[in-house]
Hints:
Layout: E1 2-4, E2 10-15, E3 20-25, E4 31-36
Antiparallel strand pairs: 1-2, 2-3, 3-4
Amino acid sequence: MGNVSADGRTLGLSGRYDREVYVLSTDDGYLIRRIPVGDGPYGLCVWPQPGRYSLGHTGITR
C-alpha cells in the first residue's frame, strides 16, 4: 500500500513483508530511498493530503 506526497513528487510504498518503506520518484520510477521500519508495515499515510478528499484504504479520512 502507498501514498503520494503532497507535492506529487514521490510515492511511498509499504513493504509489508520486507520491514521497509520504499520511496519512489513519480517522475521516472527511480527508487529514492528504502526506509527500515518495524515488523509488518501495513498501509501508509502521508500528510497533509492535497485536495479536498483523501480516499482509499491508506487515507481513511473522507
